Amino acid sequence: MFTGIITDIGTISAIEARGDLRVTVQTGYDTSGIAIGASVANSGVCLTVISKTDNSLTFDVSAETRRRTAAGMWQQGARLNLERALKVGDELGGHIVTGHVDAVGQIIAITPEGGSKRFTFRMPASIAPYVAPKGSICLNGVSLTVNEVTDHSQGHDFTVNIIPHTAEWTTFDTAQPGDEVNIEIDVLARYLFRMRQLA
Fold this sequence. Notes:
Elements lengths: L7 E11 L1 E7 L12 E4 L2 E8 L3 E6 L1 H5 L11 E6 L18 E11 L2 E8 L12 E4 L2 E4 L2 E5 L2 E8 L1 H6 L10 E6 L1 H12 L1
Antiparallel strand pairs: 1-2, 1-6, 2-5, 3-4, 3-6, 4-5, 7-8, 7-13, 8-12, 9-10, 9-13, 11-12
């Protein structure tokens, strides 16, 4: 489990095709405190540490994971939002995040709004029922609050505001319209929707 509060930005420094993709990520974490077998979220994707150095973590990325995540994410030089797994007693500053990507969306527009930026995302119809105004959503591993949702003939859009602090501490500082993003819907919304289906 994670909270969607990013604590480091890693950079993919090496990729090796071994059936699965073996990815090495440079990090600012003190890796001495990260065990082999530990879970680390990489831009919203929960991966298992299989080896490490003083300044890097290595993960295996399956073909299934690559199919279900944002294009261009698994390439050398890519920047990833990193979060270590939640420990019992840690502050829950964001919301409960599992690290399982539900869908891939796309940035449609970025508009300055005060000192922040309003991002508009297009989401697949399959997850639209789970996204609601003022609800929580996880985008590239970042816990955010949905401003508004719009359903129209072209599809389903939602907006969030990215404050300067969030931009500085995540990869949203360099995000551009057209970029794909990993979306994880709020786990509570998932269960409530299923319960209503069976009611």
